[in-house]
Each structure stands twice: as C-alpha cells, then as structure tokens.
Amino acid sequence: MMSFGSLLLRTAYKLSGAKKAFALPEDELLKAIEKANRGRGFFMPTDRKARYEKKMVNGFPCLIVRAAEKPARRAILFFFGGGMVIGPDKGDAAVLRKLCYGTDLDVWFPIYPLCTEHCITESYDMAYECYRQMVALYGGGNVSTCGFSSGAALAMGMAAHNSALGRPLPQPKHIIAVAPGEVPWNDDERARMQALDASDVAIDYAFMAKAEQFMRNGHNDVPDYTLAPSHGDYTGVGDIHFYYSSDKVLYGALPEYKAACERANVPYTVTVRPSMTHCYCMLPYFKEAREDFAKIVGQLKK
Fold this sequence. Notes:
Elements: H1 4-16, H2 18-22, H3 26-36, E1 51-57, E2 60-66, E3 75-79, H4 92-103, E4 106-110, H5 120-138, E5 143-148, H6 150-164, E6 174-178, H7 187-196, H8 206-216, H9 224-227, E7 239-245, H10 254-264, E8 268-273, H11 287-301
Parallel strand pairs: 3-4, 3-5, 5-6, 6-7, 7-8
Antiparallel strand pairs: 1-2, 2-4
Helix pairs in contact: 5-6
C-alpha cells in the first residue's frame, strides 16, 4: 500500500493537467514549454548550507556543490530532467545538497543547452566536457553520473558517448538512472510505452515522437545513442542502478536498457515500485521516496 504522501503527490500530478501539455500540437506545446521555462535556469543558491561555485563550461553554467572548501576525493555529475526542453528550478538545490552531504561527494550540476534551441549533440558536448574536467580533477574511477528522466538518459549517455569516442576517459564508477527515457526505436518498445500511456499521470506517449524532433533540432547527423541511450556501449562502467515506477510510459524502455547492460557485461540493479509519481525518489519527502533516495546515496558512496 502506498503512503499518504505518495498518494497525495500522485493526485496533485493528475489534477495539475501536466500530462495534457505533452499531447498538445507542436506550436501550442512550444508555447507551454516557453511559459514553463520562465523563471527556470541557473540559480546561485544564497543559503550557507553548502559551498557553491559557478563554472562556465562550453559557454553554459555549471553549479558545483561542496560540503568543504577543498574538493572531495570523488564526485557526482548530476543531470536534471525535463524532456531536454524544460530547465531546472530552484528546488533542485535541496536535492543536490542532500546528495552532497549524504555521500560526502562533490556534486556538479550542468545547466546543459536545451533542445528548444540546440541540437542534442550540443547538450552532449557540454555535459561530456564537464565529465572530462571532473575526471581531470578527481581522477579516473572517481566520478559517477546520476540523473532523472531525460537527465537519467544523459547520465547513461555520458558512458555511451565516451565509448563512441574510443573511451579516451575512464568510464563512470556508478550510474544512477532514475526513470530514464528514450526515443523508442523498435516495435516492442513502442508497444510497451503505448500500453502504459493510460496509467501514466505525468507523461503522454505522444511526446515521445515530438521529443525526437526537438532533440534533432533540424539535424539529421545525430548519433543514435543520443536519442536512445540503450543503443550505447557501456563496457567498462562500474555498475548501473535503475529506478522506475511500473505504471509510467518511460518504464517501457527498461528491457532495452537491461539488454544494453547485458551486452556490455555491466552489473546492474533495478528498483521498481507501483503507482509512484514520475522520478519519485528525487523527491525524498515521503516514505517510499526517502527509502529509495537513501538507497541511491548508499550506492554512490561505495
């Protein structure tokens, strides 16, 4: 039985009508995205609960959160979600601090270019440059990636991109992927996602086709793993941990991600709960979310 907090949040999602926006025609969807992005973007926290630094990477800001003045011995590259079209809000800072203090690791939070104005290859370029700089600072084997929704796809994508480049950098120590989605690329995956559409209160399956158009942003020469990270090669990654709610559209991508891990002989775990809100464990304010957030912290600390 789900907790009262979980039920309340799920109900709020349903009543908000957020799912309807994903099914809008493209011109109306763009207006809704533009409205959603007002007041979103980079924020330099003003509290004194952690040490904050703004770093420009490929012309885009990255927030670094530390518990101490000097860098920790290891770090997390953390990606926000939003379908590659919606930016982060001020609420993300609380989760970054929780990760930082819970793991004793630094957290880098890149405000990567969104696909409303950029091709996803530019998002990957900025994110991978953050990863490169982190490996240079903390050393190989000391950087993990973590993200939720489209951010989880990017967390996976860093290892896939590194492989595509010939692995010039060590692979991530851990990958935490909370509800990673992707553009479905075979009939079985499409059918699984479509079957889950009715039970998903957050994401409409109709957005999956539109997402590819946004991510390409007019470009045809886009690597397949940037659109669907399950195409990627994860050889050399320490381990990968997936978290999903079983009644969400993006859960339909899990078999493809599991197959990618098995092809690369990478250890992986899957945590699935029924009827949770999308990316529930990145909202650690009710019982199930707190439990699985604590699990993520433990996995990153290893």
